[in-house]
Amino acid sequence: MPWWSWILIWIALIALSLLFYVLLGIRLYRQFMAVMKDLGAAGAKVGHLVPATAVPDDGPQPTGSVQPGSAVFASPARMRHDYDASKSSRKEHRRQRRMQRKHDGASPSRFAISISVRRRMLLEERISRGKTL
User: Fold this and answer.
1) CB neighbours of 101 closer than 8 A, spacing ≥ 6?
2) Residues 29-88: tens digit of each pLDDT
3) Residue ranges of domains in the chain
4) CB 5 within 8 A of CB 11
5) Tell me, what's the pLDDT at 46?
6) Computed over its alpha carbons, how large is the radius of gyration of the chain?
7) How far is Cα of residue 22 from the mean position of the Cα atoms in its chain?
8) For the chain, where are the alpha helices, taking DSSP H only?
9) Global pTM exceeds 0.90
10) What single DSSP character describes residue 60?
């Protein structure tokens, strides 16, 4: 086999691989365009429907309510003030509930049994088991 036959073989291999990549690219482009056409048709069908997430405008909002996402554009001082105000409000609410529980007779602590009551319970338990002091 002469030396120039190797050059022809390599040229043919490179040409076939380039042809393969071109055909693969054309096929991929056609599939992409078909998907985009179907997507456009689906968008046209669904486009006339009212979005389910659309919220009707109820007019002016109350002064205490805040629009969702408004914190992004608020000043840091305003956000710090709002955070501190809500923190103190929650703290006061917890204090009010604690005072109400105390007023109602419930103990604010799970472990509020006095030592003398605990000793008496242990003594009664030992007696019921038949153990003596």
Assistant:
1) 107, 108
2) 999 999 999 999 998 888 877 665 555 555 666 666 677 788 888 899 999 999 999 999
3) 9-47, 75-133
4) no
5) 87
6) 40
7) 44
8) 3-47, 76-104, 115-129
9) no
10) S
